[in-house]
Amino acid sequence: MKVLHLAESVGMSCEVHGNGAASLAVAAATFTSQFYERGLLHPHADYDWLPPHLSGQVDPLDADGCVTLHERPGLGNLIDTDYIDAHTVSSYRVTR
User: Which among 63, 20, 25 is positioned nearest to 40, based on CA atoms?
Assistant: First the structure.
């Protein structure tokens, strides 16, 4: 954010390198970012593949190839807590 604010203070554009929920939130929080790097879209890679602990993309493309910021709370990750509960090996509770 400091680099984005510095670029903004001198009228420069500044682009966030990387994709994901945190990068999307940072890019959306400033007027200096004009592009969002969704990922390396290689023809043989399935970018829409999700890790099993997620139930949806945080940065889906629309019909025009654009990404729209979600309206979910926090970073907007759609975490599949049922999957996590079913695959938890062990857990412990920290108490004081």
Answer: 20
- Residue written as tokens 């025009």? 64
Contact (Cβ atoms closer than 8 angstroms) between residue 53 and residue 88: no
How do residues 35-57 score in pLDDT, each as one tens digit? 888 776 677 877 778 889 999 88
Q: Are the C-beta atoms of 4 and 33 separated by less than 8 Å?
A: yes
Q: How long, in residues, is the chain? A: 96
Look up residue 40 and give its amino acid.
L
Rg of the Cα trace of the chain?
A: 17
φ/ψ of 24, rounded to 5, equals -65, -40
Identify the CA nearest to 13 among candidates 40, 46, 36, 45. Answer: 36
Q: How confident is the model at residue 30 (pLDDT cuts 50, 70, 90)?
A: confident
The pTM of this model reads 0.72
Measure the CA angle with vertex 59, ends 58 and 60; round to 5°: 110
The whole-angstrom separation of Cα 45 and Cα 67 is 19
